[in-house]
Design a protein that fits this description.
Helix content: 10-25%
Number of strands: 39
Distance between the termini: 45 Å
Strand order of the largest sheet: 6-5-4-10-9-8-7
Strand content: 25-35%
Number of helices: 12
Number of domains: 5
CATH class of the largest domain: Alpha Beta
């Protein structure tokens, strides 16, 4: 029995939770009695606070992963976390919040209902676009009715659980101009509606300069310390609700990253200029399981965040930010109660100083904004070395305890290891989809119909089928001329078949969804069948008029006939929603018995493959999928997401070929892996691997400040070099000033130990401090291993 529309409003109106601003739960030492704010910060239980928050979308991981992710976030010195909504299994938001509560952390919810977040349709349920006369995110009565109904429901749910809430809309400023005066009215209405729910905590609108009182406008971006014009009223605090830790990626993108040093610089800059809250988007990105990702978005989401897709700490980003938070906490009193002054120290150099009157409470941020040149800054008669693009924090206005460019935390790299037991069986079976003709379809029209309005977000796929007759004299007489099928599509991709023969595929891009496919085909005298499997790769998630986006086949012509070009666009077209294997759910144990499987063949399009695997062990695991083309993978009926290995980046490599298998998806034995391959691949080369971050390194110089934790108020392989080493973690190389004794010194101090302390002085390693080009840098690379490799 299908749920009614009103039930769907409760179950699927996803409040994808993302940001941070002031929803709180009970906190460690007792109940939170109130959250307000002034022009300096958020005020919790009557006290000003510095807050460090990290976005976590709980549906992009599994409940079994939540405790570990939350614990690592707390270790990273977060004071709050962020997320998303449906309410069962992987979508149990109440369970997720209570796990955070147990760790003594604050929670910030973003209600939405629009959340963007590279989530399918921006979090809206697809049925909403079919409400009569609706216009999303505008001063439109039908939309406001559903938005208010949803928001009130979530607020009530949180109140019933003794939880609180505070975030409405998201980056509406990006689309407001499309609605003219309706946009401004909508913003005012949304603010009044939210405040009227009396949650007892502040509400926030991201990037909304005209947020009505008492709603706080905040900044989203990479460098809010320089780009944010500030709150729209002096009594509101300076908040950074999305600090992008990397860049989300789409299929076809090359690798991208944001360094720990640049991220730390941006945060130190923001706090030096009156900021008191930063939220990392994302702190843990996770996985777009199933069909949850928006248009063209990869299955792996924000893998460059401080916690990677597998929930492992990505160093040095995780540790460098933890150390930054510790340094800022040591400066807390001056930042929250001091007076801010700015002191020029020379070209590209300045000091931001906070000093509390009639006390010794003082903090200084010494900044070198030059992107390439290291400099010396003289502050209060003392010289401080400032690397390029860096900020040093002096929590007593004298002692440097942290520099954003000098990383004290260790580095690591991710490695993949073949899970031998899991890959022992290679007995793959296959089931091939049949290609429908126009007479076998259920929806007929005199033109190809728009895809999204037919599939209604129930599937990626829609078959388009038509037929036409040719006489012998219509066909080309010469052997070197072949008819060409030309298809114009509005997106996102399609696979073409003529008389049951696969002729090729085409696709658009994230920037330009529309495309054309032109392929030669063998035609015959008599009836010819054209079948096109059109598809979306996620629904759009942002921009104005979201509800009016379109996709699918637009026009089809046959060229190269003796009679000229044949336009089939006004033919009778049949449409069939989805593919049979998907409808029968042959990707789970029960459904897999509903079709006849045969021995697998390579490189056949529209083919389902299945195999029974042993489980990988207790480590995080993944699926190496480089031999396949495009499709989706299921483990015991759970989709681990779309893959598109055949879509190469400009660098000639797939954007993603490794896919996360959550351990909770696995059983002790008899694990069913099912792959739906659209274009053709080789399943025998699919491999299950375990995932580790067991290559660790440290790189320090004599100019590094002592580790921030040293300051307060009142069985392994080792590669080592001292001198001027080059390369990065995993590929370090000795430089021309390498000290040959370095390895033996480090082995003696560290081998077989979980921690060790090393000197950073040339004489300790027998190095020549005067060697030309020496940077007096110590680099250590270690391969970690357990005594029991199966533990």
């Amino acid at each position: 029995m299908s749920p009614s529309r009103s039930e769907l409003c409760m179950l699927r109106f996803l409040c994808l939770l993302i940001l941070a601003v002031a929803a709180v739960t009970a906190h460690g030492k007792g109940e939170v009695n109130g959250v307000t704010y002034d022009g300096r910060s958020l005020i919790i239980n009557g006290k000003r606070n510095l807050l460090f928050s990290g976005s976590i979308h709980y549906p992009r991981s599994t409940p079994e992963m939540w405790p570990g992710i939350i614990a690592k976030a707390k270790q990273g010195d977060r004071s709050g976390l962020l997320f998303q909504f449906n309410f069962q299994g992987r979508l149990d938001v109440i369970k997720f919040i209570k796990l955070i509560q147990k760790q003594g952390l604050y929670v910030t919810l973003r209600i939405g209902p629009f959340i963007e977040a590279e989530w399918n349709f921006g979090g809206f349920p697809f049925w909403l676009k079919e409400v009569n006369n609706i216009t999303f995110r505008s001063d439109n009565p039908p939309f406001k009715y559903h938005m208010k109904k949803f928001t009130k429901m979530v607020v009530k749910m949180m109140k019933d659980e003794k939880l609180f809430i505070p975030k409405i809309e998201n980056e509406y400023n990006n689309v407001a101009l499309a609605f003219k005066e309706n946009g401004a009215r909508y913003v005012q209405w949304a603010g009044r509606m939210a405040v009227g729910l009396k949650t007892g905590v502040p509400w926030v609108m991201c990037k909304q300069k005209d947020a009505p009182d008492p709603v706080i406008n905040s900044c989203n971006g990479r460098n809010c310390g320089d780009t944010f014009t500030g709150p729209n009223k002096p009594h509101k605090p300076v908040l950074w609700t999305e600090n992008w830790t990397a860049q989300y990626r789409v299929f076809g993108d090359p690798p991208s990253q944001r360094s720990a040093e640049d991220l730390a610089y941006s945060v130190a800059r923001f706090f030096s200029k009156n900021g008191t809250l930063t939220n990392y988007y994302m702190y843990y990105g996770g996985t777009n399981f199933g069909r949850t990702g928006s248009s063209f978005v990869m299955t792996r989401y924000y893998d460059e965040a401080p916690l990677d897709e597998f929930g492992l700490k990505k160093e040095p980003k995780w540790g460098h930010l933890r150390d930054l938070h510790s340094a800022l906490k040591l400066s807390r009193k001056a930042l929250l109660w001091g007076t801010n002054t700015v002191h020029p120290l020379g070209e590209d150099l300045e000091a931001h100083v906070y000093k509390k009157q009639r006390s010794n409470v003082c903090v200084a941020f010494l900044s070198n904004s030059n992107p390439r040149i290291d400099k010396i800054a003289n502050f209060k008669g003392v010289d401080y070395f400032l690397p390029h693009h860096s900020i040093s924090i002096l929590p007593d206005c004298k002692t440097e305890i942290y520099n954003t460019q000098r990383v004290n935390s260790q580095h690591n790299t991710r490695t993949y290891h073949l899970a031998k037991e899991a890959n022992r069986n290679q007995d793959w079976k296959m089931y091939q989809e049949s290609i429908p003709t126009v007479g076998q379809t259920h929806i007929k029209a005199n033109q190809p119909l728009e895809l999204m309005n037919l599939t209604k977000d129930t599937t990626d796929y829609l078959w388009y089928a038509t037929s036409f007759n040719l006489e012998e004299e219509d066909l080309p007489m010469r052997h070197d001329i072949r008819p060409v099928i030309q298809v114009s599509s509005l997106g996102h991709a399609l696979h073409g078949f003529v008389n049951d023969v696969y002729i090729g595929s085409g696709h658009g891009t994230n920037i330009d969804k529309s495309f054309s496919l032109s392929k030669p085909a063998h035609l015959k005298a008599g009836t010819n069948h054209i079948s096109l499997l059109g598809m979306t790769v996620g629904l759009p998630d942002s921009g104005a008029l979201l509800e009016h986006r379109i996709a699918g086949v637009h026009r089809v012509v046959v060229q190269g006939l003796n009679t000229g070009t044949l336009d089939l666009s006004a033919n009778v077209w049949g449409h069939e929603i989805g593919v049979l294997g998907e409808k029968l759910r042959i990707y789970n144990h029960r459904g897999s018995h509903l079709v006849q499987w045969t021995d697998a063949k390579k490189r056949t399009p529209l083919t389902w493959y299945k195999i029974l695997r042993r489980p990988a062990w207790r480590r995080p695991s993944g699926d190496r999928h480089g031999s396949m083309g495009k499709g989706m993978v299921w483990i015991n009926g759970e989709s681990i997401g779309r893959y598109w290995v055949s879509y190469l980046s400009p660098l000639g490599k797939p954007s993603q070929s490794m896919y996360h298998i959550p351990r909770s998806f696995l059983k002790p034995s008899g694990n069913l892996m099912v792959v739906f391959e659209e274009t053709g691949g080789n399943p025998e080369e699919i491999a299950v691997v375990t995932v580790r971050r067991d290559n660790i390194c440290t790189i320090v110089t004599e100019f590094h400040p002592a580790h921030v934790t040293s300051w307060a108020r009142e069985n392994s392989q080792i590669r080592t070099s001292f001198g001027n080493p080059t390369g990065s973690c995993g590929s370090l190389k000795a430089g021309s000033c390498h000290a040959t004794a370095a390895k033996s010194v480090v082995e003696k101090a560290c081998l077989g130990k979980s921690t060790c302390v090393l000197p950073v002085k040339a004489e300790a390693y027998g190095a020549d401090a005067g060697c030309p080009g020496s940077t007096n840098t110590l680099a250590v690379q270690v391969k970690c291993a357990r005594k029991n490799p199966n533990a």
